[in-house]
Amino acid sequence: MSIFKSVFSIAKASIAATLLFSAAFSANAADLTLRGASLFDENHAYTKTLREFERLIGEGYSGDVEFEMHLNGELGDESDFVTFLQQGVAIDYAIMAPSNMAVFAPAIPLMDMPFLFRDLDHWNAVLSSDVLAPLEDELYEKADIKVIGYAGGGTRNLASAKPIANMDELGGHKMRVMGAPIQAKIFSAISAAPSAIAYNEVYNAIQTGVIAGFENEAASIQNLKFYEVAPNITLTKHAITVRPLTMSGKTFRKLPEELQALVLEAGAKAGAFGREIESREDGEKLTQMEDAGQIVVTEFEGREKLLDLVVPVQDEFAADLGATELLESIRSM
Questions:
Q1: What was the pLDDT predicted at 212?
Q2: Is residue 6 part of a domain?
Q3: Distance CA 39, CA 77 (A)
Q4: Is 221 helix (H, G, I), strand (E, B) or coil?
Q5: What is the DSSP string of 234-253?
Q6: Which residues contact 97 (CB under 8 A, 6 or more apart)?
Q7: What is the Cβ-side half-sphere exposure of residue 100, based on CA atoms within 13 angstroms?
């Protein structure tokens, strides 16, 4: 009898939860609330992108819809966002780094591979097309997370204690890289000496000579004052960030058809809006630091050589991911 009561209680609770969840996404739309999350405040490009997405939805949808935004990492970090989106709880849309979704879609880190994009025009052309559809399909199928647009736009360069202007000076350069193996392989291929150390140890590691530099975007160099120990910025332009604007698949499927279509349209437009903001702000931050005498900016002599050196490593990485055809499609654009 007690077992029966327990089963009945569980079933009753499950039904109640289902009804509550369904009510939140009623096709009637009177009570429709979509929940977003950002690690940052209102001034960050990612939050501005999400707000633009909300604006476009609000202006274009014939029904009633409200938005609820959780800022400053209130609901955790991006790994938490992935879990929430996959399960369809707590949040409905967010912007995240591809690496945070790799556990579900192993090929998605291809978006973050160094030297994937020749320049900003190439990057923007790829993200404005449907060439990344195979990665989107894999993520939707395996994680139930739907990519509805692409933000990003921060350009990553070398930051070092001493100037690095050419292949000779790059040779043997001790630098910090992110933990993904492809990062170390790429920088080894261009003759640097990469090592993966914790991000919060970078400043002291440069200061004490454990490493001679690292790689990052202008915003991080400025915000964390890395220019104090690594004032030499070499424009290798080895990566331009791709930050998918995503929605929970469970949320998306519960929306009225009209709103589903609008979500896809608004996601694409908001992503383009965010890319413009971040790529522009990236250049502005470099200029601000340079004008303040905090950094010295140097073009890398013979950057085309770097692009050639990394091709075999990229090819091997793509083959391991089963993404050779995708890589060729990106290169050909």
A1: 98
A2: no
A3: 7
A4: helix
A5: EEEEEEEEEEEEEEEHHHHH
A6: 78, 112, 241, 243
A7: 20
Q: What is the tens place of the pLDDT at every residue in 276-327?
A: 999 999 999 999 999 999 999 999 999 999 999 999 999 999 999 899 999 9
**Residue where the block lists tokens 């990612």:** 46
The dihedral of CA 34, 97, 274, 138: what is its sign? negative
23 pLDDT above the threshold of 70: no
Asked if residue 160 belongs to a domain, the reply is yes
Q: Per residue in 123-161, is it b (16+ CB within 10 Å) or e — as a string?
A: bbebbeeeebebbbebbbeebbbbbbbbbbbbbbbbbbb
pLDDT digits (tens, 9 = 90+) for 121-131: 999 999 999 99
**Quick check: helix, strand or coil at residue 178?**
coil
Residue span of the structural domain in which 157 resides: 32-332
The radius of gyration of the chain's CA atoms, rounded to the nearest angstrom, is: 22
Q: Is residue 99, in this structure, part of any structural domain at all?
A: yes
Position 142 in a domain: yes
Q: Are 158 and 167 in contact (CB under 8 A)?
A: no
Residue 308 amino acid letter: D
pLDDT at residue 257 greater than cutoff 60: yes
CATH code of residue 198: 3.40.190.170
95-116 tens-digit pLDDT? 999 988 988 888 888 998 999 9
The structural domain count of the chain equals 1
User: What CA–CA distance (Å, rounded) separates 191 from 187?
Assistant: 7
